[in-house]
Hints:
Blueprint: E1 4-7, H1 11-17, H2 21-36, E2 57-60, H3 73-91
Parallel strand pairs: 1-2
Amino acid sequence: MVRKIIVYKNNFTEFYKSQENKIQEKIGYVLDLVxxxxxxxxxxxxxxxxxxxxxxLIVLTNCFLKKSQKTPRKEIExxxxxxxxxxxxxxxxx
Length: 94
C-alpha cells in the first residue's frame, strides 16, 4: 500500500524546517513508514478519535516534539481543529 501524504497549511513545514538535520531525517523515516507500510506502528502515528485509520490519504496538520508519554491537550485540540478546517475546505464539511 502506498499512502499519499499532503501538508495542510504551514504548521508542519515550519516545524520541519526549524529542526536540525538529525530530527528531519527521523521525521522522513516516520513519513516513509506511514507511506509504505501496510500497518503503521502506533508508536509513530496515532489516529484522531474521529477517524477510522484506514485511509490512503494522510493530511499533515501539525507537528511537535513530544517530551512525555502524555500528548498535551492543546496539541490534540489543535490537530482536531485543523482537521475540521481541512474537511470544511476540502469537502464542504461532509
